[in-house]
Amino acid sequence: MNTLRLGLLRGGLEIKQFLRSRESVVFTLAFPLILLTVFGSVFGGEIAPGVTFTQYFAAGMIAAGLLSTGFQALAIQIPMEREKGILKRLRGTPMPRAAYFVGKVVMVLAIGLVETVLLVAVAALFFGVKLPSTAGRWLTFGWVALLGIAACTLCGIAFSSLARSGRSGPAVVTPVAIVLQFISGVFFQYSDLPSWMRGLASVFPLKWMTQGMRSVFLPDSFAPQETSHAWQHGTIALVLGAWIVAALVLCLLTFRWTERD
């Protein structure tokens, strides 16, 4: 209980530090909203009967927002803290090490919730995206979002060990996040991508997160347009759960409190 209490206090501090960093706020919170506004305003045609590209893109951007909050933000932020010696100093305090990670999780959940609400609100108010009308769809939205952000958070912590310094973090992380968005059905209709690209994307969580979000915000009549001709809720849960376990193991094996010599 003491570790949890300290972790929650640490989470409040993490949120304050995040909001005080203009760069973090812009690229984590504002950038997905800007992309949604630009693409939603430019591309408005139908990709299937009763389904516009904006509806399709909005569902993908909600998933991409979770990727940005969980994976991209942590994989950039942690190397910077490591380079500045913050992690080394924290390790030398009486604070349990687990409290540091609890604080990161609290920050990611809070920022992810805010970003998701903003994206859903903008999509519904300005681009005609219909909100889920049944409890079942809201339930699907909830478990896809929770599993997705859990997988992205753990992947971000594990990936943070690849950057050799805080300054190299954005250069290492940002291209990975952008490529994943392009091949996972965010900017383009997934079924129109080359088969090798779809195969590569299906290995990573974002593809399954976008598919899960499409099952929430698009009508069931669109399901046959998917490459599997179904929403595949069971497979989505299985893949995201597998990534959570795999990323947790990687975190335990690779996380570093100090820089490499």
Automatic annotation (TrEMBL):
Protein localization: Cell membrane; Membrane
PANTHER family, alphabetized: NODULATION PROTEIN J
Membrane topology, as annotated: Multi-pass membrane protein
Pfam families: ABC2_membrane
Keywords (A to Z) from UniProt: Antibiotic resistance, Cell membrane, Membrane, Transmembrane, Transmembrane helix, Transport
Domain ABC transmembrane type-2, chain residue ranges per copy: 23-261
UniProt family annotation: Belongs to the ABC-2 integral membrane protein family.
Annotated organism of origin: Dactylosporangium salmoneum
Organism lineage: Bacteria, Bacillati, Actinomycetota, Actinomycetes, Micromonosporales
InterPro entries the UniProt entry points to: ABC2_TM (IPR013525), ABC2_TM_bact-type (IPR047817), ABC_2_transport (IPR000412), Nod_factor_ABC_transporter (IPR051784)
Protein name: Transport permease protein
Tagged with keyword Hydrolase: no
Transmembrane segments: 25-44, 56-78, 99-126, 138-159, 171-190, 236-255
